[in-house]
Specification:
Radius of gyration: 26 Å
Strand content: 15-25%
Number of helices: 11
Distance between the termini: 87 Å
Shape: elongated
Structural class: alpha+beta
Strand order of the largest sheet: 8-9-10-11
Amino acid sequence: MELGFSPGEIRNGLGTARLHPLWRGVYAVGRPEVSREGRWMAAVLSCGPDALLSHASAASLWGLVPAARGIDVVVPEGVFRRRSGIRLHRRSDLGSGHRRRVAGIPVTDPISTLIDFSACAPEWKVERAINAADRLELVDPETLRTAIESVARRPGLPRLRRLLGGQALTDTGLERRFLALARSAGLPEPETQAWVNGYRVDFFWPHIALVVEADGWCYHRTPAQQTTDRRRDQAHTVAGLTTLRFSEAQIRHRPDEVRRTLAAVAKRLASRRAGPG
């Protein structure tokens, strides 16, 4: 109507199959089929001028996760819409600072997207999305950790804070946690910060030729650092050593997994070096 179309012309377009309704007030032109992005745009338009793509749909649009079924849209408190196939969410703090556009589609900013996604996805998918946001240079874990400290109570925040672990562990704090896990896995005290094959390693058990690296959130993210890590691991492999890497998140939140892996690998290496009998 703002473009000068009368209600009769709109009805005529529907009758002659030039307009195809997607949701109330939103039409595909020429044919009913639209792309995934087209349906996202239509869903946002149908929910009002302040609506934003959100949650899993926003995470997909940002490239953090594969597309999920259904469409998530967030609207300000007090807006009530019912649309088939759209999961509607409401937020009181939906200001301009949280609005972005990707491929022309209004969408929540990366930090808001990760908070919302944490409320509706399993933990491993959230961790993968955090890593993808870092890799795509949308937001790094340190910035995300700092930003969510000032966010008011919202679904998804507790899980995100738990995954990020509050303040990043210092080298000393991470080392202490890992050493406690290694001891409980039955391993003797390792050499720490030892030089092996021209590289300084976090933990080294020379009697079983095992190297372990504990990767904190603050490091091992840039392409240059990742290349160095690969060269380091390859040099150890050439020298006949076994290298294990554990992330800070694993050491913090999956200690049993770390302990089991250490115990199994150490047992295998010890039996190999012992030889037959």
